[in-house]
Design brief:
Helix content is 44%, strand content 17%. It has helices at residues 5-20, 24-31, 79-95, 116-130, 149-163, 187-202, 219-232, 254-263, 326-334, 342-345, 348-362, 368-393, 397-416, and strands at 35-44, 50-61, 67-74, 101-108, 139-143, 211-215, 235-241, 244-247, 278-280, 293-296, 315-317, 338-340. By secondary structure, the chain is α/β, with parallel strands linked by helices. The protein has two domains: 33-167, Leucine Dehydrogenase, chain A, domain 1 (Rossmann fold, 3-Layer(aba) Sandwich), CATH 3.40.50.10860; 187-345, NAD(P)-binding Rossmann-like Domain (Rossmann fold). A seven-stranded mixed β-sheet has the order 9-8-7-6-10-11-12, sandwiched between helices. It has a five-stranded mixed β-sheet with strand order 1-2-4-3-5.
Length: 420
């Protein structure tokens, strides 16, 4: 039987435990979230009927600061998934050394079946339900799958109305008009680009001779493709979304593809074509593309024990959360493939969310160059630490990243002690 998503988290935790020689009590604390809230939201639909939606907010560990993590709206959202994402956020914040703990939220909903009015009423009800456990110094949500700056603005307005004062720092990923940060929208894609740059540098590969396949073409995969192509000069030969895989050996015009999907009512690539392009109906075909680098930027558990042997890419940079299972990790390791883990590679979003939060607290805002420069320093420093630790201990970059993150969390836990 396949492991649950949270069992995948625990599998990596156990490997890090052995490297760090953690005691059983400390390990037990890391294995469970501090707090988990399940909520139900009654929403009046446009036809006058009432529909009840289920949601969650989970806080994994807040030893190093307020909880931090996105809110996703997806039909497959469940407690196991949200708990896993909250734990990954703890480790993600730890590996790039920002003063947050890990949290995550989600609502089980098919957003394509909601009008904008229904979506707003759902968001406001969800915000009200989780309001007791969020706040600028408690837990700071952000956008994730199928949520956006507009949804964050509704959350700010709802929370501010409930507390009686304007509090833009309650969420990040907001529009600029609601005290968002310059550079936040493309931050995750920019972070992926920095991770790719640092990997290619250490492998002594010329970016202009590197071919890349990207699974998932939303905000992260799409903007990441554009930035990798324009800033590094790599050739993107394949992209995909739920409508299929789009392959072009001459290099996909990722900017045109992203503009096409942006104009689509459902933000999809369907119907996109260009000279030399071949459309493959199977969205997962992108994973098996002959290329130098694979960037999974869709959902978790995409590369498993069943298909890991079919991966032809020599290197993988995880843009999505948890796209590779623990069993697949072992197969890829034995095949000699280098994997830059999600908690490092896609940490650009939470890093610039941290910058946005700092700007909100100070009421002083930075230029986009300042944001991007600070992001580069954080990401390249974290990459270097993971790379060197992996070499020193002869472990994978994933376990190195987990070890560095857990060490910072445990240091804070031990310094603060156990209450009562």
């Amino acid at each position: 039987m396949a492991q649950s998503t949270y069992e995948q988290v625990l599998a990596r935790l156990k490997l890090a435990k052995e490297v760090l020689n953690l005691d059983e009590g400390t390990f037990a604390i890391l294995c469970e979230p501090e707090r988990a809230l399940e909520v139900n939201m009654p929403v009046r639909m446009d036809d006058g009927s009432i529909k009840v939606f289920k949601g969650f907010r989970v806080q994994h560990n807040t030893s190093r600061g307020p909880g931090k993590g996105g809110v996703r709206y997806h039909v497959d959202v469940n407690y196991d998934e949200v708990k896993s994402l909250a734990a990954w956020m703890s480790f993600k914040c730890g590996v790039v050394d920002i003063p947050y703990g890990g949290a995550k939220g989600g609502v089980c909903v098919d957003v394509t079946k909601l009008s904008e009015g229904e979506l707003e009423r759902l968001t406001r009800c969800y915000t009200a339900r989780i309001a007791p456990i969020i706040g600028p110094m408690k837990d700071v949500p952000a956008p994730d799958v199928n949520t956006s700056g507009k949804i964050m603005a509704w959350m700010v307005d709802t929370y501010s109305a409930l507390t009686g004062q304007y509090q833009p720092g309650v969420v990040t990923g907001k529009p600029l008009s609601v005290n968002g940060s310059l550079g936040r929208n493309e931050a995750t894609g920019r972070g992926i680009t920095i991770a790719v740059r640092e990997l290619l540098k250490r492998l002594n590969l010329d970016p202009k001779k590197v071919t890349v396949a990207v699974q998932g073409f939303g905000n992260v995969g799409g903007l990441g493709s554009i930035l990798m192509s324009s800033l590094l000069g790599v050739k993107i030969v394949a992209i995909s979304d739920i409508t299929g895989t789009y392959y072009n050996p001459n290099g996909v015009n990722v900017k045109a593809a992203f503009e096409h999907s942006g104009k689509s009512p459902k933000k999809l690539l369907e119907g996109y074509t260009e000279p030399g392009m071949v459309k493959i109906d199977d969205p997962k075909a992108v994973l098996y593309t002959e290329c130098d680098l694979l960037v999974p930027a869709a959902l978790e558990n995409q590369i498993t024990a069943e298909n890991a042997g079919k991966i032809k890419a020599k290197n993988i940079v995880e843009a999505a959360n948890g796209p590779i299972t623990a069993e697949a990790d072992e197969i890829l390791k034995k095949a000699g493939k280098v994997v830059v883990p999600d908690i490092l590679a896609n940490a650009g979003g939470v890093t610039v969310s941290y910058f946005e939060w700092v700007q909100n607290l100070y009421g002083y805002y930075w230029t986009v160059d300042e944001v991007n420069d600070r992001l580069d320093v954080k990401m390249s420093s974290a990459f270097d630490s993971c790379w060197e630790f992996a070499k020193e201990k002869n472990i994978t970059m994933r376990i190195a990243a987990y070890c560095l993150a857990i060490k910072r969390i445990v240091d804070a836990m031990q310094a603060r002690g156990i209450f009562l």
